[in-house]
Amino acid sequence: MTTSPVALPLSSGCSDCAAYQRAEKAASAEYDYSKATDCRVLLARHRKSSECSARGSS
Ligand SMILES: [Zn+2]
What we know:
This protein has 58 residues and is mostly helical. The chain has two helices and no strands.
């Protein structure tokens, strides 16, 4: 099993946010920090867009 030891609270039910956060976590776990940074950038961009159902919360 490769589940993460800590259950992270997911962002306000937005599945896209959760996907980006999981991708960032996975990249960090592989020491792929450039990929993790990409995920954070994509997450931030997504959260500012109208696609994000958790927009404005946080
Ligand atoms: Zn979102």
